[in-house]
Design a protein that fits this description.
mainly alpha, 180 residues, 5 helices, single chain, 0% strand
Length: 180
């Protein structure tokens, strides 16, 4: 085997290995997403049967947002497998969802602390101050994610339809509607 054929062989093996790893990763993410969805739905059904869903709202919301992040990661893996390009936007969306998730969790936790009437003293003021600082930072992070996604959608080069089957890009929706 000459050196060129050897390089081509190694390249082919690595490409096939990468595809197998992506498939396994996609399957594991799918199973994890389904299990997380089942885990999030059980308290909903139990709460509906017993009339006590309000006490578990924070946990249910947290679990559902984790499922949404897993699905976005799965989406980015699917795009990467198809186009052999690492797409940035799904990761920004996952970061946005994680930031919003944390904002909601902090807000609900602070609301729970204030309900019990135990929101007094120096410890409470420290918790409140730290929560407000974290909320401000997360708000700034959400703004950065939203602006980044907007800039990507506006200025990033679009993939051709052959590279992204079964996907509708924001810029091509009007073109497809007028073609019908």
């Amino acid at each position: 085997m000459n050196q060129r054929r050897m390089r081509q062989y190694v390249h082919d093996v690595l490409v096939k290995s990468e595809a197998v790893i992506y498939v396994i990763l996609g399957l594991l993410l799918s199973v994890t997403s389904l299990l997380a969805l089942v885990n999030a739905s059980l308290p909903i059904w139990q709460g509906l049967r017993h009339g006590g869903i309000a006490t578990q709202t924070l946990q249910i919301l947290n679990d559902l947002l984790v499922v949404l992040m897993l699905v976005e990661i799965l989406h980015s893996v699917r795009i990467s497998v198809w186009s052999h390009v690492l797409v940035t936007e799904p990761f920004l969306i996952v970061g946005l969802i994680a930031s919003v998730r944390r904002i909601l969790v902090i807000t609900l936790q602070v609301a729970e602390l204030t309900k019990g009437g135990a929101w007094t003293g120096e410890t409470a003021s420290v918790i409140f101050r730290d929560s407000m600082i974290e909320l401000a930072l997360l708000g700034g992070l959400v703004l950065v994610f939203v602006l980044s996604i907007g800039f990507l959608r506006r200025y990033a080069p679009m993939m051709s339809s052959e590279e992204t089957p079964n996907m509708i890009s924001p810029r091509n929706e009007g073109d497809e509607a007028s073609a019908r």
